[in-house]
Specification:
mainly beta, disordered N terminus, globular, 2 helices, 251 residues, four-stranded antiparallel sheet
């Protein structure tokens, strides 16, 4: 029987793949490929909301799981509930909303670029917190070309990373503002706090990562091989993770 003979000749083949380069040649479905090799179950992904804006620059969440997205083209702040219901809580004629942070009692601080300001966005008291109505007002105008990032400390002080003079401003809960730190870099791009209350800041120019104590004294922790630190994250052990970028173009 030719068919039986062919089937018998095919037999059973086994092989082993454990290297990252080998595994990435396949198409993963519901699995993640570890950099050291091996597979594991991957998180499920689903689209929560597609904004009318062309760019999303920052996303933050409140304790209730609502997401707030800072966007540009047009410049808006969107609110997305855990169930995917969306609303526009702030819009402006400026080019983009570059940064935002969620404060206590549901207050949102949002920064616009370029030549922008920081706005305080909060549920409208007149309409009631459950009505979905929000009000906004200018909270701080640093008078700088760019506002890149915002961060809040445990006391509610707002820290503002700016360019093109590489300054960080501090704004108290009462609205009093001062220059907290001035660098030799053109831009302070990103901010994050460590467990001891030090402000970690990344620059654009020489790609520096600063640790700045609450009194404003700074120390350069790291000088990156690329020019710009674009994101920072800290883990519970105090390790700092960064992303870097090297711009292409004329210097």
């Amino acid at each position: 029987d030719l068919l039986a003979t062919a089937a018998l000749g095919e037999g059973t083949r086994t092989w082993e793949q454990s290297k990252f380069d080998d595994l990435t040649k396949g198409t993963g479905q519901g699995v993640a490929i570890r950099s050291a090799g091996g597979l594991e179950l991957a998180p499920a992904f689903k689209d929560l909301y597609t904004t009318p804006s062309a760019y999303i620059w920052k996303i933050a969440a409140d304790p209730q799981g609502n997401l707030y997205a800072a966007a540009g083209g047009p410049a808006r702040v969107y609110r997305v509930t855990p169930t995917g219901q969306s609303s526009t809580i702030f819009e402006t004629h400026e080019l983009q909303v570059q940064a935002l942070v969620v404060g206590k009692n549901g207050v949102i601080y949002a920064a616009t670029n370029p030549d922008g300001k920081i706005y305080k966005i909060e549920p409208s008291e007149a309409a009631g917190k459950g009505s979905g109505s929000w009000s906004s007002s200018v909270y701080f105008d640093p008078g700088t070309k760019y506002i890149w990032d915002l961060a809040l400390d445990g006391a509610g002080n707002l820290y503002v990373a700016t360019g093109d003079r590489g300054e960080i401003f501090r704004v108290t809960p009462k609205g009093e503002h001062s220059t907290f730190f001035t660098s030799d870099e053109a831009h302070i791009r990103v901010l994050a706090f460590d467990a001891k209350g030090n402000l970690i800041a990344g620059s654009d120019g020489s790609g520096l990562v600063y640790r700045i104590a609450p009194d404003g004294k700074a120390f350069v922790l790291y000088s990156a091989p690329k020019k710009e630190i674009t994101a920072l994250a800290l883990d519970s052990a105090g390790n700092i993770y960064r992303s870097e970028e090297r711009r292409v173009g004329k210097e």
